[in-house]
Amino acid sequence: MTEVWGLTGGIATGKSTVSAWLKQAEIPVIDADTIARQVVALGTPGLQQISVAFGSDYLQIDGTLNRAKLGQLVFHDPAQLQRLNAITTPLIRDEIRRQLAAYRARKVPVVMVDAPTLFEVGYLQKLVDHVMVVATSATHQKQRLMARNGYTAADAQARIDRQWPLAQKIAAADVVIDNDGDITQTRQQVVKWLDMNKFGKTNQVK
Which of 8, 174, 175, 190 could lock onto 130 through a cystine, CB 3.0 to 4.6 A? Predict the structure, then answer.
């Protein structure tokens, strides 16, 4: 039986780093963000639906999605975000389900679904058996987001506030990886979890 874990956290808490370590340990990772980009790539039904719903102004000259422009629209308008999600959510959900079914058919012991909005998007929670949350302090989260994306303090806080509060995610998690300190300490927590559950090849985690 395949054990399905959800991997999530707040924006800029270090989830991507933990995901990379899991891949090094040969744990299959289904990346919801990657799938979200794939379902609206050039030539896909998803991109065509977005073009019809929002107009060709949201496409670039080469026909690909203008992600920055569309992102600005939906970030400031919840109704437009709902319109976008109505298009992309079924496509992302179906692809995640397809990949999970393939892993189950192969009897893979454990699979991670890497999803930053695991709690915010209801169907994702129904697809996983357990949840791992990568957490850090509010101060570090905001500082990392500002440094990584070049946001002002206000912009960083606005994006943090659009997600579930990190404290709620921690309370709902089965496992919490504390990424508030040294990266070596974070890595040790991941390796310990892998070892305790006999998942993957921990000697490959660097």
Answer: 174
Task: Give the model confidence (pLDDT) of 108-143 as tens digits.
Answer: 999 999 999 999 888 899 999 999 999 999 999 999
**Does the pLDDT value for residue 75 go beyond 90?**
no
Residues 87, 90, 110, CA angle at the centre, nearest 5°?
A: 140
Under 8 Å between Cβ of 178 and 140? no
Could you tell me if residue 58 is left (phi over 0), alpha (psi between -120 and 50 degrees) or otherwise beta?
alpha
Mapping DSSP onto H, E and C, the string for the chain reads: CCEEEEEEECCCCCHHHHHHHHHHCCCCEEEHHHHHHHCCCCCCHHHHHHHHHHCHHHECCCCCECHHHHHHHHHHCHHHHHHHHHHHHHHHHHHHHHHHHHHHHCCCCEEEEECCCCCCCHHHHHHCCEEEEEECCHHHHHHHHHHHHCCCHHHHHHHHHCCCCHHHHHHHCCEEEECCCCHHHHHHHHHHHHHHHCCCCHHHCC
Q: What is the pLDDT of residue 171?
A: 96
| Rounded distance between C-alpha atoms, residue 29 and residue 7, angstroms | 9
